Structure formats: C-alpha cells, structure tokens
Amino acid sequence: MRHPFRGLLLLSCLLCLVSPAPAQTLSPQARRDLSVLATAYPGVIQAVEVAPGGRATVVLADGARLPYDDGRPRSAEESVEDPDLKTILAQPYPLGPVAAEPPLWFSPGRQRAQALFFALYGHTQAEVRAACRPVPFFNQSIPFNARQGAADAFARVSTRLEKLAAADPGIRKYLLPASGGMVWRVIAGTDRLSAHAFAAAVDVSPRGNPYWRNLPRGRNMLAVRQAFPPSVVAAFEAEGFIWGGKWAEFDLMHFEYRPEIILLARLARGETPPLASIDALLRPGR
User: Fold this and answer.
1) pLDDT tens digits, residue range 144-203?
2) What is the pTM (predicted TM-score) of this model?
3) What is the largest CA-CA distance in the chain?
4) What are the boundaries of each domain within the chain?
C-alpha cells in the first residue's frame, strides 16, 4: 500500500531544492546594503547566494562573483586598495554642509570594488567610451557614462548649477573649467582605475580646488572645505553624487556618481527612501 504522505514528502523536498534561501539568513546590515545596491543600480545584481551561517556571494550581471563580506580584517589602506562590498559601504557619508575636519582615512566612497565598476560601466576603454554621451556643462560638453542613469543624473546637476550661477555668478570660479568625464587612467600612486576611467566622475576647476597629494598630509583643510559653496555640493548630492571635499584624503575638485552612498546617507539621517527587495534574488549557497 502506498504511504499516504510519500507524495507530500517528495514535494516538500523538491521545494527545498528550488526555494530561495530564507530572508533571515542574511544579517540586517547585509540585507540593507544589498537592497541599497539593487536600488541604486537596477539589474546589476543577478543573484545573492547565501551560504550556511549567512555569508553572501553577490553574482553580478556580467557573471562576476563578489563576496559581500569575505571575513578578512583590513587596515585602512587595505580597505581602499581591496575592499569587499561590505567595506565599500561601511563609512557613512555626511550629507549637507561640512561641520568638522574628517579623521584620517575617513573618506566614504574612496573604497571602490573595481569588479563592480566593470559590471556597471564597462570592462575596457572602448566599452566605456561606447557607453558615453556628451552632457552640456555650462559652456562645455563632458562625456559621461549613460549606463545606470549616470549621464542623466549629471545632466540634472548641470541644470541645477546653471540656475544657481544665474542667481550667484560667483560660484562659477569653483566650477569652471571642468574636466574629467571619460579619462582612462589609474589613480595617482596606485594601479587601480579611477572613477574617471568609467566616465562616472567630473573634476570642477582643478586649478582652484586642491587635492591632498599636492599639500602636506594632515593639513587642516576645514576653512577651505567650508569655503566651497554648499549649494553646489547640495546640487550634486541631490542627484546621487558624492564630493571628495568630504574626504580626509581630500579632493575638492572631485564629484563622483555614487547613488548607493547617498542612499545610505539618507537612511542614516532617518529618511525612508523606497528600496528594492532582494528576496527574489536569494539562492542557497555553499
């Protein structure tokens, strides 16, 4: 006689094999961070493989597999040179006017996972260049990556800044001329590609806005940071850009499209922006 529950038991086993890992296997921080990435960059995360114990591997649209948290302790230098996904989102970016000089190595956004940037914007100079479109910036035209809404966001920033400059022409000296856009190069003193290589950043008035490597390390830059027009910073931040003027390793000319960093900053100050659910992306891992 066939056991009456054999069919139900078999069905239950099959469902265990195909069902995604339960949401509670991810830590709250991992769920938040991965939801923020999925919101900032729709479609870039194809799956999140969750191993026993909750360790997650993120599968990107180009097939790259990145650990969310590889469990490896890092020095401040190593966090910049070779971060996992948890590390790139660990430092809270301070929205709004600059209130204090940041402590050494506090530079939210300088930690970049290069494999993520490849998946977002292109793997080669030719691929990135093909993804660019010119964006008007005052009397200039700057090539910016059209993927992930970066060029559209930069165009909105440009519109905001033109309105600000019409009311206060004095801000132009902080903005012009601008450079960057698509410049395939490594970061000075490293072998890592710059955000400019991916056409996802712009430098405004490079001669007038200092860079940390050109000044004594540890110099107090608070007055210089605060002199930069807060309205300009706010215009960029409103469209998903971070400002290098808020880094300890300061780069006052540098604005970089990092909507995930801005989303986390908004969450940190109590806002409730809608976030994408990652439940459908969860898979059992090993």
Assistant:
1) 999 999 999 999 999 999 999 999 999 999 999 999 878 999 987 788 999 999 999 999
2) 0.89
3) 90
4) 90-273
